[in-house]
C-alpha cells in the first residue's frame, strides 16, 4: 500500500492529511480544512471527448489510440472516451473495433479507455465545423450494428437529422448518453430533446446560438440542460461565456476535444480525413476554422482556476461530473473504494505525480 500526504480533495471536501491506496483507495485520514495548501491530491481527470494527441489521430487505429492515451495520461487524464469524427461507415466500424481492442489492452502509462464517443456521422452538413464532410441522415440500423462492435458511451448527433427520434430512442435504450451538437435545430426541438435526457456537445460551438430572439440549441442548453460539455481552452469559449454556462447548467463539465497536435510542436496533423494545422496553441483548418484543440486536462484545470473557479470546483468539473454523466461512480472522485486514479499538484497547479489504478507514471 502507498501513502500520499497533503490536501486531499474528497467527495465531502478538503482533508488535510493522508490517504492510503493500492489498486483502490483504502483509507483517508485527517482533518477537514477550508484553506488547503499544496501539495494538492485530486481525482484523476475523465475526458469524454478526445480525438487524439501526441501526433496520433484515433481514427488511425489501436496504436494511435494508445499513443494518445499515453500523452493525455502524462497530463492527468486517467480515463477517457476515444472519440471519432464523421467518416464513411466502414471507417467508423474500423474505429469501433480499435476501441474494443484498446479497452481490452493493459497499457502501462496510458489513460484507461472506457469506450467510444461517436461524434457523427448524423450531423447537420451545414454545421460541420471541422468535421469531415461525411454527414448523413440518422440511420437506426447502422447504430444498432455499431453498438455490437464496442461500448459506445456517448453519441453526438444533430436531432434534425432524424426527425422521428428513432436513433435517439435506440441509443438511450442501449445506455448511450446522447448529446446534441453540430446542429442548426431550433429552440423548441432542442428543449424537447434536453428534457428527454440528452446532453450537449462542446457548448456554444457548432450549433444554433443563444439569442434573445430566434433562440437555438445554445439558448435551450442554458435554459434546460442538466449536463453539457465545454472546451475550456479559452479559445473556443471566452471566460464570460464559461461563467454564464456554469451558473445555468449544474452538470457543466470540461473536455479537451484534443486532436493529434496536443502535446506536439506546431505543424500539420490529421483529423480523420482532414489536415489541420497547429499554431499559437490552436488547431485550425486552412480557412481558420477551429479544428478541435491542443488542450490537455491539466491546462484546462489551470484555465478554469484562472477565470475564478475554486480549485475544488474546477477539479470536479474535469473529473467527477463527467464520470457522473456516464454513470461511473467508481472514478472521478476520491473516496474509500474508488479507483486509485490520483493526481498530485504543486502550488502552481503543475502535476508532480499521476497514479492510474494505483500505478505511478512519470510526468
Automatic annotation (TrEMBL):
The gene coding this protein: nagA
One Gene Ontology molecular-function label: N-acetylglucosamine-6-phosphate deacetylase activity
A GO biological process held by the record: N-acetylglucosamine catabolic process
UniProt protein name: N-acetylglucosamine-6-phosphate deacetylase
Residues engaged in binding substrate: 130, 205-206, 213, 236, 290-292
Cofactor stoichiometry and binding remark: Binds 1 divalent metal cation per subunit.
Residue ranges occupied by any Amidohydrolase-related domain in the UniProt entry: 40-347
The EC number(s) this enzyme carries: 3.5.1.25
